[in-house]
TrEMBL record:
Organism this protein belongs to: Mucilaginibacter humi
Protein name: Resolvase HTH domain-containing protein
A Pfam family it matches: HTH_23
């Protein structure tokens, strides 16, 4: 039987040339590259071709952007505006790409 796992890559907020690779789903194998152990690569372009050079292992949270107060206030305003337009909680969540629970929490914070 073959071990199957899916992975995803994302841009690091530390440097535009850094990408990290994370295991997001595994069926019949253990998780090796999860939140606490992602593979970090640097994008280089030798000889006109893009290349991923392994740099190190890292933690995913070190590469995520921390939302600012302005980001949160903007999201609250967007949720409030969409609700006043008559959109349901589900429609607001789908439109903004967030969970329904987050929409509910933001609506409670607005009150």
């Amino acid at each position: 039987m073959f071990a199957t796992a899916r992975s995803a890559s994302a841009k690091s907020q530390i440097d535009n040339n850094l990408r990290y690779l994370k295991q997001i789903k595994q069926r019949n194998t253990e998780e090796i590259y999860g939140d606490d152990n992602v593979c970090l690569f640097q994008i280089t372009k030798p000889d006109k071709f893009l290349k991923f050079d392994f740099v190190d292992y890292s933690r995913e949270w070190e590469h995520l952007r921390e939302p600012t107060i302005e980001d949160r206030d903007l999201l609250k305003a967007q949720v409030a505006d969409l609700r006043t337009e008559g959109k349901t909680v589900r429609e607001v969540a789908e439109f903004l790409g967030i969970s329904k629970a987050k929409v509910q929490r933001l609506l409670e914070a607005i009150k």
